[in-house]
Write a structure and sequence with these properties.
By secondary structure, the chain is α/β, with parallel strands linked by helices. It contains 20 helices and 5 strands. The chain folds into 3 domains: 115 residues, Serine Threonine Protein Phosphatase 5, Tetratricopeptide repeat (Alpha Horseshoe); 143 residues, Glutaredoxin (3-Layer(aba) Sandwich); 131 residues, no CATH class. Bound molecules: zinc ion.
């Protein structure tokens, strides 16, 4: 029973912090009946009762105290009581001698602190701009305005746009560093060039695909590194292209940062595009909804294929991009920032996506890990689609 339970928990570990521990400490679950009872309550979502039973055990048995504090902390964290969870984790640290468990708990504590201090919500520029703003931003001056910030030098044929881009670019870089890559420093400067229209953009941006409205360049030559983003100011109707602020700029910036982060290693395409879409100022709900439709239908790209496809083999781009966004978002939302950072680090070092995830989560064994991961993601994608549909119907 204990063995079966351990395997099930290990496979489903993405949703549960405690399960990753279960994968390498089987004895935590079968030490005493009381411990088992507290754990069952935790698994059943009865957090108050699990907290109470495990707390009583921690007070009663010095030998089992560390296990009991772990359950208390998990119950509190899952109930959203992060400050009390941190107190229980500290008591766990005081009574546990296992280095790997201590490391695990330190990461759990990091995720509690993260949850207590969520980054401020970014309101997309398109929602903040009124008609007058849009008219002003559509003006093209013969004079090029330059704005410099800590990480960007912006050049645009509109002084107001250059100022606005300076703020938006720093904000997008913050999102990419904090929420996605967990990279603290970006000690570089990126040149951002804004071209008035599509023709001018194509004439000046190097290797820009004809269909694109923005692109990035990262190259090194004789010790000089070029970090550059090219954008288009006006859409095909001559109106200011708000999409460049909220989607194209953060998307291309994410590609640029990831390209530099991976260096000579290659980032799987689904992850590169998934992270770029996550960096956009607002999640593309059409794509999110389509992902759920795709995974439930005939057109779906199975997870095992999605994670290895490249530009030549991606198949239907609408399915590939929707699934890449959905799966990357599922991964990012299922683990802590530190675990995601570790996952990216392992991929960069050459691990497969599956191995990188197992290593980041400390999951051992479980040959059916990928199948369980695929099933967990499919349920998530379907639930997201149902949620968005329900939301639309209630409007
Ligand atoms: Zn892209």
């Amino acid at each position: 029973m204990a063995t079966t339970r351990k395997l099930v928990l290990a496979g489903a570990c993405l949703a549960s912090g405690l399960c990753a521990v279960a994968a390498f400490t089987p004895s935590v679950f079968d030490t005493t009946v009381a411990m088992q009872s507290a754990l069952t309550l935790l698994d059943d979502g009865q957090y108050v009762a699990a907290d109470r039973e495990a707390m009583a055990l921690a007070m009663r048995s010095e030998k089992s105290a560390w296990r009991a504090w772990m359950i208390v902390a998990a119950a509190r964290r899952r109930a959203g009581r992060y400050a009390s969870a941190l107190r229980a984790y500290r008591l766990f640290l005081a009574s546990c001698r296992s280095n790997s468990l201590r490391e695990y708990v330190l990461r759990q504590m990091d995720s509690c602190r993260e949850a207590m201090n969520p980054p401020p919500r970014h309101v997309p520029a398109a929602r903040r701009l009124n008609d007058n703003d849009l008219r002003e931003l559509a003006k093209v001056s013969p004079q090029i305005s330059t704005e410099s910030t800590e990480h960007f030098v912006i050049r645009a044929p509109n002084a107001r746009l250059a100022k606005l881009l300076a703020v938006e670019a720093e904000s997008a870089l913050r999102r990419i560093r904090q929420n996605i890559l967990a990279v603290q420093d970006y000690p570089h400067s990126v040149d951002v060039y804004v071209w008035s229209d599509h023709k001018s953009y194509l004439a000046h941006a190097s290797d820009a695909p004809e269909w694109s409205g923005g692109s990035f360049t990262f190259s090194t030559s004789e010790g000089n590194v070029t970090r550059r983003i090219d954008l288009t100011q006006l859409d095909r109707n001559g109106k200011f292209a708000t999409i460049m602020l909220d989607r194209i700029l953060p998307h291309e910036l994410s590609h640029l940062v990831i390209r530099e982060y991976f260096g000579d290693a290659s980032c799987p395409l689904f992850l590169d595009e998934g992270l770029a879409m996550l960096a956009e100022a607002q999640i593309d709900n059409q794509r999110v909804e389509f992902a759920g439709i795709a995974v439930a239908g005939d057109k779906k790209i199975p997870l095992a294929e999605l994670i290895v496809r490249d530009r030549q083999t991606m198949g239907d781009p609408s399915v590939f991009y929707a699934e890449s966004l959905s799966f990357t978002r599922y991964l990012r939302n299922s683990v802590t920032r530190e675990q995601f950072k570790a996952f990216l680090g392992h991929v960069k070092e050459g691990s497969t996506v599956s191995d990188a995830l197992r290593r980041a989560l400390y999951v051992t064994g479980g040959e059916d890990f990928m199948e369980k991961l695929a099933a967990g993601w499919a349920n998530y994608a379907l639930a997201e689609t149902q949620f968005l549909r329900a939301l639309r119907e209630t409007r």
